[in-house]
């Protein structure tokens, strides 16, 4: 028998733990563990995906021209500088596959998104984690962490699971300071939650060493469809299109995403609703002695006195049918990440934390 072994790095990848969706023996469960839009996709997106179902015997478009055109129109970007993927996760994987291999380093922050490490390892590269400053991306630490081997620097802005963001000036300072031959990747998964924010598009349009990723999984409510996109220098798009499979995105996902991106009123409505209940929930938990940093996303990172208290609260919430996310794996053992649900979910959550705190006293 042959000794079949995977490439170096592969077995160092810890299997991804998704947000739970069920609690044994508890009904009326609310899932607040995966930063999904509680309002669901735009009704226009649902209609477009239903319409697309009748044509499923045909292969999808392989150049995604209609979706890239729609994204370009809505965001004011050149469609030639856009690439679509099966979620932004796939774009992150393309970047690592194309630009980082054995001996190369991929930088990200201590509370950075799990896919940066996973995709770096899958490509055979070396993941390098740098410190944040009080749960905020630290540009100085990232610059200090760069070496001649650094190929990719990933930051999510705003970040998951901290919810914090850094300024355009700080992002520019990072782009200026990384080594020649390295690419700064701005992950804008939560960009739409910040009114007027371009997610880093201007930087990615102006600089040859900046790339932006975006997703339809968060404010657009299409996590199940698996679609995201990237924007940046044509040279990079041309490289990524060579590692991309020709039919990497389904026709339903393309149709749903196109209708979603054009439904700007729905996005604005989701953003406003999220902001309203995010403020309400953060204040309610704050009054109960559970603080959080100001969030620019659709979740809050609730901080407890200890890991034991965070875990006890999580267990209690589960018993009440409220599923939130433990983030010890993101070096945040004392915290729980709570997605902003609808009004009912936020009220239930605050009530449950109140009961948990009362039970502790
Ligand atoms: C949710 C999320 C994504 C999106 O992943 P998809 O593959 O597009 O679903 C990307 N980056 C961050 C930081 C996220 O939180």
From TrEMBL:
<keyword id="KW-0808">Transferase</keyword>
<dbReference type="InterPro" id="IPR005861">
    <property type="entry name" value="HisP_aminotrans"/>
</dbReference>
<comment type="pathway">
    <text>Amino-acid biosynthesis; L-histidine biosynthesis; L-histidine from 5-phospho-alpha-D-ribose 1-diphosphate: step 7/9.</text>
</comment>
<keyword id="KW-0663">Pyridoxal phosphate</keyword>
<dbReference type="GO" id="GO:0000105">
    <property type="term" value="P:L-histidine biosynthetic process"/>
</dbReference>
<feature type="domain" description="Aminotransferase class I/classII large">
    <location>
        <begin position="28"/>
        <end position="353"/>
    </location>
</feature>
<feature type="modified residue" description="N6-(pyridoxal phosphate)lysine">
    <location>
        <position position="218"/>
    </location>
</feature>
<dbReference type="InterPro" id="IPR015421">
    <property type="entry name" value="PyrdxlP-dep_Trfase_major"/>
</dbReference>
<keyword id="KW-0368">Histidine biosynthesis</keyword>
<dbReference type="InterPro" id="IPR004839">
    <property type="entry name" value="Aminotransferase_I/II_large"/>
</dbReference>
<dbReference type="InterPro" id="IPR015422">
    <property type="entry name" value="PyrdxlP-dep_Trfase_small"/>
</dbReference>
<protein>
    <recommendedName>
        <fullName>Histidinol-phosphate aminotransferase</fullName>
        <ecNumber>2.6.1.9</ecNumber>
    </recommendedName>
</protein>
<dbReference type="GO" id="GO:0030170">
    <property type="term" value="F:pyridoxal phosphate binding"/>
</dbReference>
<comment type="subunit">
    <text>Homodimer.</text>
</comment>
<dbReference type="InterPro" id="IPR015424">
    <property type="entry name" value="PyrdxlP-dep_Trfase"/>
</dbReference>
<keyword id="KW-0032">Aminotransferase</keyword>
<keyword id="KW-0028">Amino-acid biosynthesis</keyword>
<dbReference type="Pfam" id="PF00155">
    <property type="entry name" value="Aminotran_1_2"/>
</dbReference>
<dbReference type="InterPro" id="IPR050106">
    <property type="entry name" value="HistidinolP_aminotransfase"/>
</dbReference>
<dbReference type="GO" id="GO:0004400">
    <property type="term" value="F:histidinol-phosphate transaminase activity"/>
</dbReference>
<comment type="similarity">
    <text>Belongs to the class-II pyridoxal-phosphate-dependent aminotransferase family. Histidinol-phosphate aminotransferase subfamily.</text>
</comment>
């Amino acid at each position: 028998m042959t000794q079949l072994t995977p490439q170096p790095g592969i077995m160092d990848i810890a299997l991804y733990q998704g947000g739970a969706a069920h609690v044994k023996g508890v009904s009326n469960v609310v899932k607040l563990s995966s930063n999904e839009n509680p309002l669901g996709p735009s009704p226009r997106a649902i209609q477009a995906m239903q319409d697309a179902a009748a044509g499923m015997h045909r292969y999808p478009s392989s150049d995604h021209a209609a979706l890239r055109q729609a994204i370009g129109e809505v965001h004011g970007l050149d469609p030639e500088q856009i690439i679509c993927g099966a979620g932004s996760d796939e774009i992150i994987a393309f970047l690592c596959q194309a630009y980082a291999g054995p001996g190369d380093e991929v930088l990200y922050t201590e509370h950075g998104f799990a896919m940066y490490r996973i995709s770096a390892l899958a490509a055979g590269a070396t993941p390098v984690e740098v410190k944040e400053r009080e749960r905020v991306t630290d540009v100085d630490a990232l610059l200090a962490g760069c070496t001649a081997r650094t190929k990719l620097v990933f930051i999510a802005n705003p970040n998951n699971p901290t919810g914090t963001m850094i300024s355009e000036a700080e992002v520019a300072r990072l782009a200026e300071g990384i080594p020649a031959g390295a690419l700064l990747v701005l992950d804008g998964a939560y960009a739409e939650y910040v009114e007027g924010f371009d997610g880093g598009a201007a930087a990615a349009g102006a600089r040859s060493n900046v790339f932006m990723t975006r997703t339809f999984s968060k404010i657009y409510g299409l996590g199940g469809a698996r679609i995201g996109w990237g924007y940046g220098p044509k040279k990079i798009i041309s490289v990524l299109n060579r590692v991309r499979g020709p039919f990497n995105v389904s026709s339903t996902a393309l149709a749903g995403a196109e209708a979603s991106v054009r439904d700007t009123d729905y996005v604005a409505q989701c953003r406003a609703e999220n902001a309203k209940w995010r403020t309400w929930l953060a204040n309610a938990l704050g009054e109960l002695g559970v603080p959080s940093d100001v969030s620019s996303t659709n979740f809050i990172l609730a901080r407890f006195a200890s890991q034991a208290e965070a875990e006890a609260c999580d267990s209690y919430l589960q018993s009440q049918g409220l599923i939130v996310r433990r983030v010890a794996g993101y070096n945040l053992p004392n915290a729980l990440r709570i997605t902003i649900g609808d009004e009912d979910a936020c009220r239930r959550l605050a009530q449950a934390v109140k009961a948990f705190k009362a039970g502790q006293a």
